[in-house]
Amino acid sequence: MRFKTVIGLEIHVQLSTKTKAFCSCPADVFEMPANTAICPVCTGQPGALPVVNAEMVDYAIKLALALNCKVNEYSRFDRKNYFYPDLPKGYQISQYFYPLAVEGYLDIDVDGTTKRVRIRRLHLEEDAGKLMHEGDSITQAKYSLVDMNRCGVPLVEIVTEPDLSSPREARIFTEKLRSILRYLKISSGDMEKGALRCDANISVVDVEKKVSSNRVEVKNMNSFKFIEKALEYEEQRIKEALVRGENVEKETRGWDLSTKTTVSMRGKEEESDYRYFPEPDIPPVVVSRERIERLRFSLPELPDQKKQRFVQDYGLPEYDASVLTADEWIANFFEVCVELTKKPKETSNWIMTEMLREMKEFESEELKIKPEHIAELIRLVDRGEISIKTAKEIFPEMFRTGKMPGRIVEEKGLKQLSDEHTITEIAKKILEQNPHVVDQYRSGKTNVISFFVGQVMKQTRGTANPKIVNEVLRRLLER
Asked: Is 44 helix (H, G, I), strand (E, B) or coil?
């Protein structure tokens, strides 16, 4: 407990608008050929004037409301000045002095405890272009290529207070934020495509010596896993420096995937370095209270609300409800399944264990499994036509082929044998062939019944109903 870690996040969310923030170029540029989705406005040509995308503003207000922010009726754009190869204007249009929203929060679950992470501000801005470095390592690249397609793509930046105290909490926060983005349908939240990008500011306090390290910014983290790994590395690096009594530089560092380390990129900029001043070509953004309330009314049921409803309406444990509602598609799939099965907990078990495991390993985006598959599988088990073991065995084939479970059972001859007369005849023969084991059972070693159960299952190729097998064997052995 000697050290206390302090983390604040700056998260950029790419909004799924049809066009860019200030021009009519398409905003979805991920798979477009380099430098083809550009125009004089987004490349900063002399005389080109920006016009605010109204859809971008509505999307940002929705997110602000979902994150419990106060939406300002008056906000304004500013110029953030810096020179970089992928910023053709030499400045970025952002909001600094008057952001769109402030003073929000997001509650996250950490080991069964709810932790509130405050959100300092939420503002709109445009994206810069993209540099593609030659080679895997940003420190070893000999040259870089510039793609301007991303210039002007609309972003929301979310700045948290330094309320996070571990790399794991940072990961949990960003995962929950992505879930909200997808529920709102305002962003894909795909980190691998750059639609959700996270920078983290981290410092460590030596509680014993009552000193704090300088704040270090960590960039280039393009997955939830790497957010956690990069911050774990940086946390340890700072702790070791404090133990040695060394100064921790106030700098910006990048996560180098090839070496699994953070590397120094540049000195940390201060606010004054950007020389903010009001954007002269864009009037203030004024949104009416009526517009804000209309957007609030349009919000869907969000993950936390849906989780609470799943607990109350379906009697699910909080853990189950959390897993099922983390993804809206899974939550909707579950609800349709329950309409068919009327068995919430059993349905939850099949989805959380078998289905989510298959989805993790499945590469295609087109899923063939439907709620009807789950419902029929549960019915087959309930009727005693197949065992749970058999159901789990056929699940992968059902998931990947889209075949109904009943059809797979018929094709493979897996229908469970529940005829008591047939099972009794098989059991009698096995007892006759193993009289010494029968004697052991009758002398008090009742656990040997598992031997007979195994023999019956072997004779029936695993299709005998285990419950009936046990009942028949006990009745025969206890005569």
From this structure: coil
Residues 6+ apart with CB under 8 A from 121: 99, 101, 102, 158, 159
How far apart, in whole angstroms, are the C-alpha atoms of residue 390 and residue 427?
A: 21
CA–CA dist 360, 22 (Å, integer): 38
420-477 has CATH 3.20.20.140 classification: no
> Is-contact 231 199, C-beta < 8 A?
no
The structure tokens listed for 3 are: 């050290």
Question: Helix/strand/coil (H, E, C) string of 344-375?
Answer: HHHHHHHHHHHHHHHHHHCCCCCCCCCHHHHH
Could you read off the pLDDT of 335-392 as tens digits, one per residue?
999 999 999 999 999 999 999 999 988 766 678 999 999 999 999 999 888 888 889 9
pLDDT tens profile 395-449 = 999 999 999 999 998 888 877 777 788 888 898 999 989 989 888 888 888 888 8
Does 462 have pLDDT greater than 90?
A: no
Q: Which pLDDT tens digit goes with each residue over 111-130?
A: 889 999 999 999 999 999 98
Classify residue 115 by burial, with Cβ atoms within 10 Å: 0-12, 13-18, 19+. middle
Backbone angles phi, psi at 189, to 5 degrees: 70, 15
> What residues does each domain of the chain span?
3-291, 301-412, 420-477
Least Cα distance to 222 among 45, 8, 11, 401 occurs for 11
| C-beta separation of 174 from 30 below 8 A | no
CB atoms within 10 A of CB 444: 7
